[in-house]
């Protein structure tokens, strides 16, 4: 296979440099679409968006539009949103309920399990030629639902989702589980979609564990916009984790998280202080969670990124964000805001208000991220700029294995998660097999067998 | 409460008064006199910009816009958060507005939609308008935000306070990276 740009030379994680081409070059971007987004598991939506048979939600995988829907039997599917006849987008609503997707162009129609049903003038024009069974909507060969979240992959050979997720699951669980530790139980209360003129990896990397960019949020930290700000507390969220050890963990599948490892015994930190009922609710959840999870309750989440482009905020705020590529220098961001489905209305109201002032294009915190990503992308497109790689030397070598949680763990701010991410990324762009993509070396695999 | 109908010198005077208020308010924002702008907001202000969705014909009333008071919108705020937004800009390190954007608010199609209790004694009025907000920042970054506004203005001495502002931005996927300016 002809490699147009030598990935190996652009990614040197031993030295700690990454070429700027990765963030601006159309040739690299093409390869990402072909070799990476066609293989990885990608987040497409949440079951709470399609509770009933016939419910659909139009999502994206990579650059392409897909339909997430539930068929009459209750099974969930993900289809490419493109008619098999001439490619027209068969669904241009964002969500709804239907028994058929009727193509606006020549009116072929598809059932919610993807089958081609209606072909106008079939008898007169197609009889004996067109076999309807062969012209269903194109469906992802792989789909998995994990605690309400729906994931899909275009690669029939992709490993099952749980293998792909690996030990990052313990951290993702802190996003998806109820605040009192019951498994799952979240719902999507709304979505933001917006366009940002940046390379998608700037955003992914930010959530992967770039805690070093904290100074860019100085303005919100100064003025205080957190859930206790009205009670006079500065900062952009409550200090729930005062007693804990921050950890930055990277995983062989390319995921990276920033979590906190709490001490063996730790107590509830008052939060949501201008809303006594909400404070009380979270206090109750805290104790329930400790009882239910035991030692696992020691993991508390900040942010993370599941390879390649699904990021999360774990708690304050709480949601999943997908960075959909549009071009080397343009990204469409979709943030799904989460709450416990059975939380009291008053709690949900306080949370949604906090989410809106924190996150997204109108979010006082995230606006500053977007400014940085835009101008970092723009000023890396130049001929001279592209001769000089980015620096990724922060905390090289400063991590340990599986202590105190599985993965490569750093207890200091680090770019190890990013170095690991680009090592994984390089393996996709080189077209490696799944063992390599999962970080399983041949020797490791043999030993396991 | 009466629906405002065209007619009579009081009605025209009131409409003119409301227009002058909206233009003055827009000018305060464009001149970056943010703190003075905050003084025009009622303490119980509702400031709301829904997300607009692509829905099937016939479902527009029910599903096109997110609703104030539930779920996630672009803005569903009160005076406190707007005060925070102003405070943030004035820190000088809110990089999304540092350096400050250049902004012009165009307000047009002003109509009196409701007058309470009457044009001669208007305690509260509902004013419809259109906005075209031009934002240019740093060198090449330009955004146009176009849409409809419905404002509830409450009489306050010789002037008005904004008690409710609903902004319908005519976009689905937001085409700007940020909504870092005030509408
Ligand atoms: S493109 Fe869909 S029916 Fe022709
Ligand atoms: Fe950030």
Give an overview in words.
- The complex is a heterodimer of chains A (449) and B (183).
- In chain A, the strands form 5 sheets. Chain A has a 9-stranded antiparallel sheet. In chain A, strands 6-5-4-7 form a 4-stranded antiparallel sheet, with no helix packed on it.
- The two termini of chain A are 31 Å apart.
- Helix content of chain A is 27%, strand content 25%.
- Chain A folds into 2 domains: 12-16 and 168-448, Naphthalene 1,2-dioxygenase Alpha Subunit, Chain A, domain 1; 42-143, Rieske Iron-sulfur Protein (3-layer Sandwich), CATH 2.102.10.
- Chain A has helices at residues 7-10, 21-24, 26-36, 122-125, 161-165, 169-176, 200-209, 218-223, 276-293, 345-358, 366-378, 416-429, 434-437, 442-448; strands at 11-12, 17-18, 42-46, 55-61, 64-70, 76-80, 95-97, 100-102, 109-111, 116-118, 142-146, 149-153, 186-196, 245-250, 256-261, 299-306, 310-314, 318-327, 330-340, 390-391, 400-401, 408-410.
- Chain A is built from 14 helices and 22 strands.
- With 449 residues, chain A is α+β, with helices and mostly antiparallel strands.
- The relative contact order of chain A is 0.16.
- With 183 residues, chain B is an alpha+beta fold.
- Chain B has one domain (8-113, 126-144, 163-169): Nuclear Transport Factor 2, Chain: A (Roll), CATH 3.10.450.
- Chain B has helices at residues 8-30, 34-38, 60-64, 79-89; strands spanning 2-3, 41-49, 75-77, 102-118, 121-137, 141-156, 159-169.
- In chain B, strands 1-4-5-6-7-2-3 form a 7-stranded mixed sheet.
- In chain B, a hairpin with a 2-residue loop joins strand 6 and strand 7 (159-169).
- Chain B is globular and about 50 Å long.
- In chain B, 33% of the residues are buried.
- Chain A binds chain B through residues 92-96, 189-198, 216, 218-220, 222-225, 229-230, 332, 337, 349, 352-353, 355-357, 360-362, 364, 367-368, 370-372, 374-375, and chain B through 49, 51, 53-56, 59, 66, 69-77, 80-81, 84-85, 87-88, 91, 93-97, 138, 141, 172-180.
- The complex binds FE2/S2 (inorganic) cluster and fe (ii) ion (FE2).
- The site of FE2/S2 (inorganic) cluster (FES) has 9 residues of chain A, from loops.
């Amino acid at each position: 296979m002809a490699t147009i740009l030598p990935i190996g030379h652009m990614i040197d994680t031993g030295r700690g440099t990454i070429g700027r081409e990765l963030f601006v070059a159309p040739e690299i971007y093409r390869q990402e679409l072909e070799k990476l987004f066609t293989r990885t598991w990608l987040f497409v939506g949440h079951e709470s968006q399609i509770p009933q048979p016939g419910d659909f939600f139009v999502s994206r995988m990579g650059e392409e539009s897909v339909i997430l829907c539930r068929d009459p039997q209750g099974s969930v599917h993900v289809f490419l949103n493109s008619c098999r006849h001439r490619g027209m987008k068969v669904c241009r609503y964002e969500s709804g309920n239907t028994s058929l997707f009727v193509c606006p162009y020549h009116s072929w129609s598809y059932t919610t399990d993807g089958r081609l049903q209606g072909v106008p003038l079939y008898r007169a024009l197609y009889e004996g030629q067109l076999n309807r069974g062969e012209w269903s909507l194109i469906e992802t060969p792989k789909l998995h639902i994990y605690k309400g979240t729906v994931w899909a992959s275009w690669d029939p050979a992709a490993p099952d989702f749980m293998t792909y997720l690996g030990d990052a699951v313990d951290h993702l669980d802190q996003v998806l589980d109820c605040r009192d530790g019951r498994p799952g139980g979240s719902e999507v209360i709304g979505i933001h979609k917006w366009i940002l003129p940046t390379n998608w990896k700037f955003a992914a990397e930010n959530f992967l564990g770039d805690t070093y960019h904290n100074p860019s949020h100085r303005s919100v930290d100064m003025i205080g916009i957190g859930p206790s700000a009205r009670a006079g507390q500065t900062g952009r969220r409550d200090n729930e984790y005062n007693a804990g050890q921050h950890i930055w963990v990277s995983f062989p599948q390319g995921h990276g998280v920033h979590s906190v490892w709490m001490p063996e015994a730790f107590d509830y930190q008052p939060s949501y202080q201008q809303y006594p009922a909400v404070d009380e609710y979270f206090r109750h959840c805290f104790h329930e969670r400790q009882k239910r999870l035991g030692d696992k309750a020691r993991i508390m989440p900040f942010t993370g990124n599941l390879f390649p482009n699904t990021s999360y905020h774990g708690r304050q705020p709480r949601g999943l964000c997908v960075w959909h590529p549009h071009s080397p220098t343009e990204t469409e961001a979709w943030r799904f805001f989460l709450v416990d489905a059975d939380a009291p209305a008053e709690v949900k109201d306080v949370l949604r208000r906090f989410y809106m002032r924190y996150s997204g294009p109108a979010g006082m915190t995230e606006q500053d991220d977007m400014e940085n990503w835009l101008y970092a992308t723009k000023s890396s497109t130049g001929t001279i700029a592209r001769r000089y790689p980015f620096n990724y030397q922060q905390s090289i070598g400063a991590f340990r294995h599986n202590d105190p949680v599985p993965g490569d763990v750093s207890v200091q701010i680090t770019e190890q998660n990013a170095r690991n991410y680009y090592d994984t990324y390089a393996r996709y762009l080189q077209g490696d097999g799944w063992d390599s993509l999962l970080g399983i070396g041949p020797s490791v695999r043999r030993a396991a067998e | 409460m009466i629906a405002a109908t065209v007619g009579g010198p009081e009605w025209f005077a009131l409409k003119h008064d409301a227009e002058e208020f909206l233009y003055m308010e827009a000018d305060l924002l464009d001149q970056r006199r943010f703190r003075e702008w905050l003084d025009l907001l009622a303490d119980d202000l509702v400031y709301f910009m829904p997300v607009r969705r692509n829905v099937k014909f016939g479902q527009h009333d029910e599903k096109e816009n997110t609703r104030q008071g539930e779920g996630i919108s672009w803005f569903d705020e009160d005076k406190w958060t707007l005060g925070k937004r102003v405070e943030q800009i004035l820190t000088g390190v809110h990089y999304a507005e540092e350096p400050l954007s250049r902004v012009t608010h165009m307000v047009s199609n002003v109509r009196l939609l409701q007058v309470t209790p009457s044009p001669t004694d208007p305690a509260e009025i509902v004013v419809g308008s259109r906005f075209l907000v031009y934002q240019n920042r740093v060198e090449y970054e330009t955004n146009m935000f176009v849409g409809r506004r419905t404002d509830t203005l409450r009489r306050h001495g010789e002037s008005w306070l904004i008690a409710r502002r609903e902004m319908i931005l005519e976009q689905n996927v937001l085409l700007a990276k940020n909504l870092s300016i005030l509408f």
